[in-house]
Amino acid sequence: MTGAGASPGVPPAAARAGTSSGPVMVVGYGNSLRSDDGVGPAVAARLAGDPRMAGVVIRSEHQLTPELAADASGASLLVLVDAGTDEAPGEVSVRRLEPVIDGAGTAWTHHLDPSALVGLARELWGSAPPVVLVSIGPASLEVGEGLSEIVAPAVTRAADLVATVVEAHRRA
Amino acid sequence: MSKTITIDPVTRIEGHSKITIQLDDRGEVVDAHFHVTQFRGFERIVQGRPVHEMPAIMARICGICPVSHLVASAKAVDDIMAVEPTPTGADLRRIINLGQIVQSNALSFFHLSSPDLLFGFDADPAIRNIVGVARKNPQLARDGIELRKWGQQIIEWLGGKRIHPTGIVPGGVAFQLTAEVRDRILAGVPEAIAATERAIAWFKQDMIRWEEEASTFGNFRTAFMGLVDRQGHVDHYGGWLRVIDADGNFLADKVDPKDFNDYIGEAVEPWSYLKTTYWKPMGYPDGIYRVGPLARLNVADRCGTPRADEELEKFRWRVGRVAGSSFHYHYARLIDTLHSIEKIEQLLNGPEILSKHTRSVAGINRNEGIGVSEAPRGTLMHHYKVDDNGLVEWANLVIATGHNNAAMNRAVLQVARKHVKGDRLEEPMLNRVEAVIRCYDPCLSCSTHALGQMALKIQLLAPDGKVLGELAR
């Protein structure tokens, strides 16, 4: 993925504070060995060579880890792309998320939900970017590689939606 | 009436397990077992595969420490090829392995264990987690996240991916380090050291609080095993196996790791998929020993890097030359991390680190090979047999968590005896039984060769199997 590993080692937190001038960050995440759960990484892969994404940090992740919060804190916009169980198979939706940090009921260690990710960024680094979640409804989450026939065409639609969101952010 | 308490599964460790605690008629704890309830069977999966594929396949055993398996596996294939990696190839393997140790140690200490240490074992689980840590001690949380990220970046920059990297191959590594990547890693060293030293300082200032807890927290006499170099320093990649007893006497030293089968046996118990290794001269089950960060510090004369050695001296002054309490794994893990960072810096500043000679090439020259290295959780052994065409006929993996299995069971028993009273199921007991397991940072994904997360359940069972009580988290 473009941008993966491009950030420096452990920069001082202060250097990252303030998000308005930071890059846009797009993170496609999910398990590509669980069929349509891999749709997020598939969208990230589609966007990696897209000229509309010039200057955008695009990452492909298995899941949202606490480490990602450190990078997200310096972004001007965070777009997350994931399989969403609220959507019908192949349906693409987009919505804004609010940062939330709440340990009750969760003992997360390795991964976070999207709101908690930016909540942690705000809590620890003092800033959190606006977050947009693009969700694609899966048809199958069974063990296996490759997207289902219903979901595969949604990759292009989701990628176009991400590009539209990024463009709107640039103009704002 | 005797009863059994079951904790199923255990939380905040890597993989699935449960704990059963056996009570006698008076409600006193008489026995305890740490059960690993998953099975993957990599040793069978690989039969018939070309041996050159082994590092890439074995790395899939675990998403936390794939590099450890890559290294041990590649070394086993080196042995089959009768080839020595080039010096630069070996050093690059060392660096990526140390990056693995930094990120995994950070995960264990900061993400998994620091909530217990910051809030205490009796605190409400709703706050006793990393979110709570972020609120109460944000510097500690930031340090843990940044440190893990730096270790992961080393793996990614050298091996292509943070999880399941591919750069380590039989004969060395499949890449040449560039000055740009070297300098990028080096740029992160000062902050990585500072973050680790802040954590050590925080841990030490609070140690008095844990003195009594540590005395019964898996505190017992066992042997310890780890790799040391020719100077007796900690060595995470090669060197010799050294085994000491609880008083620091050598049980074995300068043992070629390839001879480990002469010293280490494996036992199988019907209640767990996790094999239990033992020190052969003492037999099973008496040949109990421990591996991992605590063992590495106990067996080595010194770490071999200045900052870590300074901290090691203080560690030994505080807890003794051979630390016996499993609680001290946490402290040892931080010093192990500090040493790893310093060692990464040393290796990256080596004169040949940018050499293009990173891989030796050879074919199948032996039908058997062994590779041994130090994984975050302790000594890791891969042992393969192949046919003349290099197809794998047999494989055996001896994993750090297996080395520690007997000790973990004893630790659970000790904590249960102190904290379990009658047949009441109480949260603090549950916390402590889990936490003593967490000291060892067991990786059940590796040890059964599985990936998962844990919730927590305790059951009280009557001798006839009837559930008398249940606690779930």
Number of helices, counting only DSSP H or I runs of 4 residues or more of chain B: 16
| Overall morphology of chain B | globular
The computed structural class of chain A is: alpha/beta
Order of helices and strands of chain A: HEHEHEEHEH
Based on CA inertia axes, which overall geometry of chain A fits?
globular
Instruction: Provide the CATH superfamily of chain A.
Output: HybD-like
User: Based on helices, strands and strand pairing, what is the structural class of chain B?
Assistant: alpha+beta
Largest interchain contact: A-B, 29 and 39 residues
Largest sheet of chain B: 5 strands, antiparallel
Tell me the strand percentage band of chain B.
15-25%
Average pLDDT taken over every residue of chain A: 83
Keyword list:
heterodimer; A: 172 residues; alpha/beta; Rossmann fold; 5-stranded mixed beta sheet; 5 helices; 30% helix; globular; disordered N terminus; B: 473 residues; alpha+beta; 4-stranded mixed beta sheet; 16 helices; 18% strand
Describe the protein's architecture and organization.
The complex is a heterodimer of chains A (172) and B (473). Chain A is α/β, with parallel strands linked by helices and 172 residues long. Chain A has helices at residues 13-16, 39-48, 66-72, 114-125, 154-171; strands spanning 24-29, 57-61, 77-83, 92-97, 131-136. Chain A is globular and about 40 Å long. Chain B is of the alpha+beta class and 473 residues long. Helices cover 41% and strands 18% of the residues of chain B. Chain B has 16 helices and 16 strands. In chain B, helix 5 (130-136) packs across helix 6 (138-159). The longest helix of chain B is centred in the first third of the chain and has 33 residues, at 87-119. Chain B is globular, with a radius of gyration of 22 Å. Chain B starts with a strand and ends with a strand. The chains are: A alpha/beta (172), B alpha+beta (473). Chains A and B meet through helix 3 and helix 4 of A and helix 4, helix 5, helix 6, helix 7 and helix 8 of B.
